[in-house]
Structure formats: C-alpha cells, structure tokens
Amino acid sequence: MLGYVRKNISEVEYHTWFAPVKNLGVQEGSLVLGVRNSFAQEWFRKHYLELLEDALRSLGAQNPQVSFQVLPAAQDTLFSPADPSPAPGRPPPSTPGGPSAQDQAENRKRLNPKYTFENFVVGPNNNLAHAAAMGVAESPGKAYNPLFIYGDVGLGKTHLMHAVGHYMSERFPEKRIEYVSTESFTNDLINAIRDDKMTQFRNRYRSVDLLLVDDIQFLAGKERTQEEFFHTFNALYENHKQIILSSDRPPKDIQTLEGRLRSRFEWGLITDIQSPEYETRVAILKMNAEHNRIDIPQDVLELIARQVTKNIRELEGALMRVVAFSSLNNVPFSRAVAAKALSNIFAPQEVKVEMMDVLRQVASHFNMPPDVIRGSGRVREVVVPRQVAQYLIRELTDHSLPEIGQFFGRDHSTVMHAISKVTEQLGKDQEVTASVELLRRKMQGLDDEDL
Ligand code: ADP
Ligand code: MG
Predict the structure, then answer these.
(1) What share of the chain in percent tops pLDDT 90?
(2) How much is the average pLDDT of 375-388?
C-alpha cells in the first residue's frame, strides 16, 4: 500500500508524512494508522485520506475506510524510520469493476478537486498553456483541437487538464468527461481484449465530450494502443469533441510514435509549461499556505522558493516539510528552522562550502595548523589530513582538480591520487572513515547544535 502512496506523491512528502506512520491494523473494517500528534492527524485527514483510500482500492478493497489515531508520545520519535511491514489485515478483495459503470460521477471523482483554475497560479512560465486551457474550457471542440500541453514533470500539466474538466462539468453538467492516464488507457485496452469487451471499451472512450489523456509519451512503442487511440482520436475529432493531451515532450520528440498520430497531435495547438520563475514559486507557496491556513512569514516562503526551483510538486513538499518540522519540534517558523528542515534534502546546494572552510575544519579536527597540512611534510600524521581535505573539497565544492592542486601547491595528479587513496580507505581504515563522515556532516550543516 505504501508503494502506491509513494508513487503518487513526492519523495519529500513521503518522508515527511508517511515514513513515521505506524500501521495499527484493522478495527471495525477500517484501517487504522498511527500518527504522531493531532496536527499530523488533521493533516492526514485533510490531505491524504483520498490517496489512502485509492491505495486500498488498488489492492482490491471495495469500500475502503481509513482512520487515524494519535500515537502515545513514547512511540513518537522525530523522523524515526518507517515501519516497513505491510498491512496485516487488508480489506476483503473484490473483483475489479469493469470500466463501464457509473461513469460521470466516477469521472468527476477522478478529477482532483484541488486542481482547478482558481488554484492555478499563472506566471510567465505557464501563461500560454493556461490561456489555451481556458480557451478550450470556454468553447470545447472549437478553439483548438487537440490541445497538446508538454513540459517536465511536476509543472502543472495534470493540474491544467483537471481544471478544464472541472470548469466544463460545472458549466455543462450533462457533458461527459473522461480523464485517463495513458497507462490506464493501455491497461483498459489490454483488459478489454482479454475479456472480449472491445465494444464497451470503444463506447466508453468514443462517447465523451471531453477526453483528457495524460502522459501520452507512454504511447511510445505500444503499437496496438496507438492503433486503438488513433481510432478513438478520429471518432472524437470528427464529432468536434475536445481532446487534450499532455506529455513530457513535444510530439516530434516522442520516439516510435506512428506518423499519423504525430501529425494529428500537431493539428491543434501545442503549448509548453516551463519551470516557474522565483516570483511564481513564491506565489504558489503563498497560495498553498493560505489554503492550508498556515500562517508562515513571507521571508520563510522566499527561502523555500530559493531552494526548490524545478518542480512544483517538490516545492509543495518542501513547504510541508517545513511546516511539519516546526510543528513537531514546537518551534515557530523562521528562516533558520526552514533551512534546517530542508537541509537533509538540499544541503549540497544550500550550504556553499569554500576550500578554505574545508581546510580549517580538517585542521581543527586533526588538531594541526592549516599551513602544516598545506605544507610539504610527508609523515603520515600530515599526509592523512591532507588527503582527507582534498577528498572533501572535491566532494563538497565545485572546484576542479587543478584548482584544488593549486590551493595545495601541487598538481592535479597528486589530488587525484589523494582522492583515490581516501576512497580506498573508506570502510577499511577506521580513522579515515570516521573523520570523513564527521567532517562531511559538519560542513553540510547537519549537526543539531543551532536548533
Ligand atoms: P505534472 O502533471 O506536470 O507532472 P502536476 O499537474 O501534477 O504536474 O502538478 C504538480 C503539483 O504542482 C500539483 O500539486 C499542482 O497542483 C501543483 N501546481 C503545478 N502548477 C501549479 C500552478 N501554476 N499553481 C499552483 N499549483 C501548481
Ligand atoms: Mg501529470
């Protein structure tokens, strides 16, 4: 079950929230999860109930129920490792329901209620995709067909697609909307072939007013699915039904995609989403904090926005981590606390270490003046610290081998030799191993003294 959860949220979120959860088994038909405090309990209810129910459903539960219990303090250690044991009592398995049943209600359920236009922050990185999505939502089948949105993971493609779905279902409740990932489209097709239910399959996908197909790049190499999708596409297109596709790359870059599909994907409008600029990232964090009624100072949000630049899902995860960290440690929000909360994940970027810092730390660790380490002495007492210093500088800074060599008055091959020497000794020589570990932690700011 945790595997399912993990696939659907970011690593940061997973470690913040799910790693410490204890599985308390099943009581009165409901899976009981132990969480650390009432804050976490509230958080799970608000943010993860649906996901957990989906996870149980993916295991075959028909009517999954999840509840949360606050663990007694003794079991509550900060960032303790997760209990890896799987659920002992699973809800009873059921036969998987065919795709046909209560479609419209089901489809709406599949749209994430959070993914609306109102909750979508528009910035220079996504304004064209946003405008295009609004356009098709206003006049489906007329503005651009298909609408093809591409961009890296975590930048809002799924959010925008769902937003169109919500918008349409509010304004035209009678319209049929189908949101499907390319993976489930493929699986549905495979099942339909196996169960001899191709007619149902075709009816399902060809009778909709709006078809949203997510991550279409996964069509690559799947010939039968491409064939089937080609016919679905044509049927909808000819009837002026709206199609929206998302992908992590433009159609021309999807390898082994049939030419006739590629050209169809290019018939309408192709628009991309880029990584958000700093200001957009701050705005997204602000909106998130407000929605969750978290009163967090602007400068803390700014620090988070500086840390996470590429992926909005990770950005949201970082905010949650900071919130969890300060709540669990019972300290108010501050930049220092935020930096601390994120240091495990973002240390290498955040803490900029200079060669001189490393040398000083190494010197004080081995209790010897920095200049002696940089000097010409060749006894072991000096050579080991020198090699450790060169190794750590290489690891913790961006300096090249020749630059490090110059800093020590040596050439780059000496530095290379030092690095391979230390690498060799790691795990074997206790003094070297312990020194490297300790110094590395210290310099990445992972020590706890300033909390
Ligand atoms: P993708 O499908 O491109 O991988 P998602 O649509 O799943 O990305 O977005 C990842 C997360 O970031 C979601 O929680 C989504 O709500 C959020 N998000 C993405 N773009 C925005 C935006 N412009 N404003 C607010 N939240 C956003
Ligand atoms: Mg997506």
Answers:
(1) 59
(2) 94
CA–centroid distance, 145 to ligand 2, in Å, is 20
> Annotated binding residues for ATP, as ranges?
154, 156-158
Q: d(Cα 449, Cα 195) in Å, to the nearest integer?
A: 62
Q: Are 66 and 52 in contact (CB under 8 A)?
A: yes
Residue located via tokens 């046909």: 100
Which of these, 69, 64, 91, lies nearest to 23 by C-alpha position? Answer: 69
201 close to 192: Cβ distance less than 8 angstroms? yes
pLDDT tens string 224-279: 999 999 999 999 999 999 999 999 999 999 988 999 999 999 999 999 999 999 99
What pTM was estimated for this model as a whole?
0.62
Residues 6+ apart with CB under 8 A from 372: 363, 382
CB of residue 157 inside a 6 A radius of ligand 1:
yes
ipTM for the assembly: 0.99
Scanning 181-311, the segments in alpha helix (DSSP H) are: 182-194, 198-206, 223-238, 259-265, 278-291, 298-307
